[in-house]
Amino acid sequence: MPKIRQLDEALSNMIAAGEVVENPASVVKELVENALDAESTTITIHLKEYGLKSIKVIDDGIGMDAEDLSMAFKRHATSKIRTHHDLFHIASLGFRGEALPSIASVSELTIESTDGLETANQLTLKNGEVIEKTLSSIKKGTAITVDDLFYNTPARLKHLKSETKELAYIVEHIHKIALSHPQVRFHLTHDQKVLFSSSGDGNISKILYQIYGSDIAKNLLPFQSENSYFKIKGYACKPMFTRSSRQHITLIANKRLIKNTRVIQAVMDGYRTYLPMKKYPIVHLEISVDPLLIDINIHPQKLEIKFTEENSLLRLISSTILKTLEAAYLVPKVQKHEPRENNQTKMVFHKPSQLEELSENYQLDLNVDTSDQVNPLKRSEKRFPELEYIGQYHGTYLIFQSEEGLYLVDQHAAAERIRYERYYREMSKDNNIRKPLLVPFEMRLSKSEVIAAQTILEALKSFGLTIKLEENKLMVFEVPAWFMERDEEGYAEMMISRMLDEQEVSIGVLIDQLAKDLSCKHSIKANKFITKEEVDKLMSDLSVQKNPFTCPHGRPTMIHFTTSELERLFKRVQS
């Protein structure tokens, strides 16, 4: 008796559902993408009990006649592909009916549709089988209702997150798909309560405002650029607003929401030293590319895609975002938080990660004039404020004034930034000038480190270190000329140790890490008094840095108290 047999269609659909239908959000995603492919201008999503009881998606698209309606639930049935050529020129979000058999196999599904030419029809399916065919009263487009999701696969229900978390996934997806299709009106409700509604007027800024609120929307920096293969545009939020995960980096390629870890890393590379550790930016990035240069068929849900000429895209993204940030004014302002409840004055200071607390009575307000940022590649002449030194507080913060108000500068963060950019420049140069050591020094190594060291000798040489590898040690004879006097050995050991630990890291990342390590070592520390002359030199050097607003680890170098806010705090003006 043969051991290999073909699975029946119902079981095949349930297996396919495991790849496509992970949770209620994935159902919403597939149905909404089908609606978008049907050229809908308005899409309404109604949820009951977090989408587990019912998901209903209504669109005003082109709809289907009775024959297409029946075909939509056949496996591998699609209206989008006819030939081999079509498979490599995909411009749609999915294939009409591609996910419907999978969804129908794990739910009770009802679909109503009309193409506007014939009478509307309705199908009801259970366990993937059609149990009823009737006429419908729908006037235009398609309406799909998915009831009791996973009723016949209880194991799947056990693996879902909490109900509120599953609802959050749906809301997040609708937010992002509204950003990818701003010309379509979306309306999302849960148990008859409106969660999101967009106008469909094509205004991306308006949707970003709805999602993130006014503080974020007012601090988004527009950018756009292109090369031979790609065009990119979008918005990058100022780095004073961060999130704890990558979820707020929205990637869109040819109007398709995508996931791509290398593209996300390129965005992070653009922010470089502007972000605190383990913090992520808010970014909206749209990529336009010839469909021939992307492969969307590497993931069942069509989220992860591959780019041909990907390195070209990554360079374009990181350099564009970096130039946008370098052209922006990024000094955070401190502002009183208005009372919201019980008429009690409550002020909260929302500080960037690792920023030493000034007072629990303030929050950062980043509402600054962005009129000089229309062209992000043109540096504003007023990017760095003109400041008059007043004094030093607590041996750590330098106090300045200007016509715009009061400024506090973290002397250690400022010194770190200056040294970081200096070291980064020096290590990025070719043919570093070396200086010989009067007495060579040695580094003792373990057997494993000796083996690893053989692979980094050339890289060390490119950084200006002349080294000889012996049995169980490294002998250092020359170091870069820019090493500080009397600390050459410490600098060299730091560079060698970092390279031994990070052998797989690219040169650019390694230079960045080394520059951070070295910049912290000899920078002015907190709780140290510095003279007026030292202050003048520090601020003069800081003002000409590419990024004078954060230290290499992403902490602010300065914050700004506006004059009007100080007057409010002292009750000189009405709040």
Task: Describe the structure in brief.
This protein has 575 residues and is α+β, with helices and mostly antiparallel strands.
Written description of the protein model:
The chain is α+β, with helices and mostly antiparallel strands and 575 residues long. The protein has three domains: 9-200, 2-Layer Sandwich (Heat Shock Protein 90); 213-326, Ribosomal Protein S5, domain 2 (2-Layer Sandwich), CATH 3.30.230; 416-521, 2-Layer Sandwich (Ribosomal Protein S8, Chain: A, domain 1), CATH 3.30.1370. The protein has 18 helices and 24 strands. Strand 18 (388-393) and strand 19 (397-402) form a beta hairpin. Helix 2 packs parallel to helix 7 and helix 15 (488-501) packs antiparallel against helix 16 (507-521). The model is unreliable at 337-381 (pLDDT under 50).
